[in-house]
TrEMBL record:
Name the record gives this protein: Histidinol-phosphate aminotransferase
GO molecular function: pyridoxal phosphate binding; transaminase activity
InterPro entries from the UniProt entry: Aminotrans_II_pyridoxalP_BS (IPR001917), Aminotransferase_I/II_large (IPR004839), HistidinolP_aminotransfase (IPR050106), PyrdxlP-dep_Trfase (IPR015424), PyrdxlP-dep_Trfase_major (IPR015421), PyrdxlP-dep_Trfase_small (IPR015422)
PROSITE patterns reported for this sequence: AA_TRANSFER_CLASS_2
Highest taxon listed in the record's lineage: Bacteria
Pfam families recorded: Aminotran_1_2
Keywords: Aminotransferase, Pyridoxal phosphate, Transferase
Family: Belongs to the class-II pyridoxal-phosphate-dependent aminotransferase family.
This protein's record includes keyword Transferase: yes
Organism: Nocardia alba
Amino acid sequence: MTVRLVEPTRPSRRFHATATPMVFDLGLSENPFPPLPSVMSAVTSALAQANRYPEFLPEELPRVIADHLGVSPDDVVVGAGATGVAMQVMRALGDGELLTSTPTFDGYPIMAEMAGMPLVPVPLDSGGDQDLTAMRRAVNRRTGLVVLCRPHNPTGTVLDAAAVRSFLAAIPHRVPVLLDEAYVEFLDPADRLDIRALLHRHPNLLILRTFSKAYGLAGLRIGYCVGRGKLIERIRNQQLPFGTPTASIAAVRAAYAAGAELRDRVDSINRERIRLRTSLRACGIEVPDSHANFLYLPGPGVATALRRAGIKAKAYPDGSARITVGDPAAGHAVHAALVGLR
Ligand code: PMP
């Protein structure tokens, strides 16, 4: 499998209108399922108090998340999605370079610019994985933050757990490392990292997660970061007063309570991803082995073929595309649009 990358990802902040009406919107790696009825009802009840301000600084939501994870509430900072929390991280740390892979989640180059952190992009290796050797070599005294994604966006590939542990052991403690686990719930439990053990060993580590993906609550903007000591305290100091809506607490409590139902949905998204990847590989498209709710379809020509078929995807400069998976009807449309391309 090779991932052809002609140019690094450019942040796409503007919507480009196209002539073909869009039939499926697969551009933002969303969860195809609407919120569970129990989550809807919890959020609706909470909205009855929407005339009231939420907590000045969030205490309840960090506590609910910390209890679920088995960590101290002092180690959890919440924010407006993983994006909001990552922005807090950069504002707290922002006087150095941001070292990360390219391509990656579009938010990182955008936020680095906003935070005034020069971006140091390290190309993915020929297998579409983050190149940990090159990233380790690129760390120097100017490095202010290192970002790793596991699974990675856009390829969905998963760094080997032992390789992540050696990477962390090789990074000096003065350099914070943000391990972005936005898609962790799609991983087989055997592939997940023991974040408590890692955090214990590495005071410079921050784990970033979100309720936007597996929990299907992207519109509510709930994310969090887990870390330790002075580092997490600096990030908490960037907390926006009254910035955590009361409804988000109700949504998280209800989502945790519905763990088994959500697990079924994640399993079905995973099955659909495997089915679609197999059928696209049979068409000659070298789709990397994704472990998230999207697939990366290497170009050239893929993004254009999808657009012509009315499928909105995240497009890359070399003609590659990333599509959200989970909806079988959309998967069939993707297959139909690409069959015969190679
Ligand atoms: N990290 C990664 C790797 C992502 O792909 C995304 C969303 N596409 C985010 C963070 C941000 O997610 P959110 O702000 O919705 O929580």
